[in-house]
Design goal:
With 69 residues, the chain is an all-alpha fold. Helices cover 88% and strands 0% of the residues.
Amino acid sequence: MNIEFIEAKIAEITKELEKEVMTILMDESLGKGDTNLRMKPLTSTKQILENALESIKMVDKLNKEDLEK
């Protein structure tokens, strides 16, 4: 499994999410409630990606350990 490739792709997605976050934060026409509502899916998506990457790394590590036995 190419963990580096997966990490790079997730980093690309995270950068795009951060751009969207900055766009929302810079939109002065939004109130605090609207800003929070628009931020929540982006924050959740980023957390899901981070958790997925950690899971992939763990599975890869366990697989390598099993192959060494």
